[in-house]
User: Fold these one by one.
Assistant:
Number 1:
Amino acid sequence: MKAYFLAVVLLTLLLPTAFAQTTSPYYHKITNLQQQKGWNGYALLSPSWSICSSCSPTGSTVNWSRTPGISSPSVSGSSTRHHIGGTRPFSDILWNNHIIGNFSSQGIYDTSHTLVPNLHHFVYDVYFFAKNIGASQALEFDINQFTGGKSFIWGHECRIAGGHEWDTYDNVHKKWVSTGIPCNPVNNAWNHLIIEVARTSGNQLLFKTITLNGDTHNLSITRSPNSTSWHAVTINYQEDGNQTQAGYSIWLDRLNFTYW
């Protein structure tokens, strides 16, 4: 009996996340988001990187496309190709999807504000593929929560041409901070990325872990939020252009988003 008790205790210590997922009444997993509606693309021109309202997906300064339903390369049988190009160096394309709250693509509008304020844990799980990964300045994967007048942006950036390292975003000072953790996605192969974050009971951002191709790094970074009037949970995917704005494509597949 003692051995059984110790085994149960050990399992509980090793798997706190799984335990929280199965017991939370708010637990929900959205699968294959790369196939779903609600994605909007925005051009971010250097050097200010503010949204360009006059830019067109077919323009010369910066251009972009998003093509779902790709059978090859694919993990699930239906990946989505994201492409950027143009002539203005270091310009980026941001794709955003509103999951919960304002403009929800999932029909989860939470007008009574009973869901978003109770969510504290988020997991961004995605496979990505590139045929010329070296043309990317960086790839960005973000989880965003807006509740109680506070803006929580868990930004994660894999610098590639920019230096093969993970950065995380500082909400208050609006800047990227190096983690010292290497980021070396494999070219011509599927890469599997899992990002885990949390909003603490004291309303702080907690960057928990980054796992790339089975290699997990514990971040344990805590930061303060910014302010907002929004009420929502959203996710971002972004591709950054390099010094020549060389065109390149990234395929996303099995993009799953979990919250509780």
Number 2:
Amino acid sequence: MQNKLGVMQGRLLPKYQGRYQAFPIEDWQDEFKIAKIFDLDLIEFILDFNDFEDNPLLNNDGIDLIKNLEKESGVSVKTICADYFMEAPLHSDNSSVANNSVRVLESLILAASRLEATEIIIPCVDQSSLETSEAKDRFVHKVSKFFPLIEKENINLALETDLPPKSFVKLLNELKSDNITVNYDIGNSASLGFDTDEELDAYGDRISDIHIKDRVLNGGPVFLGEGDADFEKFFNKLKSFDYKGPFIMQAYRDEEGVEIFKKQLSWVKQFLN
């Protein structure tokens, strides 16, 4: 099976409200047409914390509209980046926040099922980082409750964390479901100074979604190839695994998005081909 190539939602449009990554409420439909021009297979949808009630993922009419746009463009929504949980973590020590997030995740899983999506990316980084053993315990407790549902609907919860490889594997081993997988972000790993070989040896067989990005060590995103991510090493190592998931372009963006995306897409194709 050939890997699908996609783009993070909003990267083909001007910044929404000046934000680097956000659900573009006003013109999200237009991105399907642009993605088709670039011959992309996928758009990875975003569920933001801001105005999340207005996201088409969370209502039936919105899902029907997405499905119609998929048919018209040939561009599918198979993965959802749930940035909502960066602001309102499932493992929050505020029980009201955590319980609301549980309800949101349940709705999102059912929405993903209707869309025939396969991945929901749960970011546990920055303000939602699993920094303490208590936070990890709360996270395991909350996520474990979803095992019957995600296994029934065959949807993966793909975790992205800033944990070093051994700690991440320990967490994965506590989450005893084949539908708990890994979202691997090339740039974020480079920024954290992690070793690609060590990471993939630890959990390469559990990666189900890959974000293509470049960052400098301990710093922010840069144009692909100008940071500390070793793309050649990563893609050579990935050949050791039977990876069938998508590659999602989440690369550096400017105010407009399209032209810088086009240049970086051309650059990365040397590895994807």
Number 3:
Amino acid sequence: MKKTPSLLQSILPIVVLTALLVINVFAFEDALGGATQVSLIFAALVASLIGVYNGEKWIKIKETFLKTINTSMSSIIILLLIGSLSGTWMISGVVPFMIYYGLDVLHPSIFLFAAVIISAVVSTFTGSSWSTIATIGIALLGIGKTMGIDTSVVAGAIISGAYFGDKMSPLSDTTNLAPAMVGSDVFTHIKYMMYTTIPSLILTLLIFIIWGFTLNLEGNVENVSIVQNAIATNFSLNPLLLLVPVILIVIIAKKVPPIPSMFIGVLLGAISAIIFQPHIVESVAGVTTNYLKASYITVMQSIFGSVSVSTGTPSIDRLFSTGGMGGMLNTVWLIITAMIFGGAMEAGGFLAKITSVLLQFVRTSTSLVATTAASCVFFNVTTCDHYLAIVISGRMYKEAFDDMDLAPEVLSRTLEDAGTVTSPLVPWSTCGATQARVLGVATLDYLPYCFFNLISPVMSVAVAALGYKIRNRKGEPRLKENIDIKNL
């Protein structure tokens, strides 16, 4: 007979995972190289054994984590295509082109502010934080690095802007998923999110603009000149290269699905490399007598493996190096093991048990919003996927919001405020692992500087505490905050 897990049993796998992760930090320089993946498998094993002990069949547990792995397959394919895109866009000169002219246009004092704005605009038009970070984000990171700004801070600015658009764009999958889960419509959902999202963005921009004017980067003017000279010497900076990112942004904005969109981006980069950078194509291939052969070798190498454009300066060479699909394999491994852990936690009933305990402490609309936000973060950590965090939290708290007579957009807003934007802050989640690999900056390194992502869940709770734009199901403002859910 199957037994309901106790609270102690439910949190034990999380305790085991946390302990192993802490040990990994001290034992390994790069825990994402394998130690974290093994830790997730061990924690999943603990969860599975407890589930079997409670009467759950092993076949059911296995089917559940295979199902969760399946939910991440789209993300894995996109991740591999992002690796390919970064390779072809590098050898084609698209990324170097954006870096070269970005260094001319963006002054260091406003760069962080501008990085947030540019990322936010692009992701709003495309509805995708992943494609924004993998294209414009890589160029912005190169610009910031050349200016001498800490890459962790630059990554925080890029991710802050990218997840603003991912959260607010009607083209975004999460922006459509959250209201669908709770029975609201997407435009009411977006309108209601503005009351928490716009203040969060304004605070983020204020922090970065103040930070920018405190930077002393005068000594890096020479470095900027060296990088620009290296780019001009080694790449053909044809203005037509700018058509590649523009075409991709238009394609994504036209609601072409992410996988074919990214594949088109890869092909555009490959074609541009063959047309505009013949000397690089021959250099990478090591073939100068047969351009057709050189083109095939270089394009394939940039798609599946490591490519580096040699400038004669090692520090600059690293700026023009990519890993292709092969560079993403550790991240793919991480995502798969994370999904196994999340599936084992769900199959054992541990997530439902923890949520039921949290609901016992809910008394007011503020505490309900706070509990929902905390659960979204918790599910990002345990299920390792922001879609699951939104779906599980939406399903579990919908009845509680109905009992408090709260409009569904209050719940859908909370799901996005805490579920969508905190996903890149978890090192082993699909988003955290992907952004760390794409930008080449560890998740825990950029986390303190993702101000928008950190402020958003706090803002959601603060707005609820103020009673601002917290309305009942008829759309009328709620005048009384201290409503006890037990008395409804």
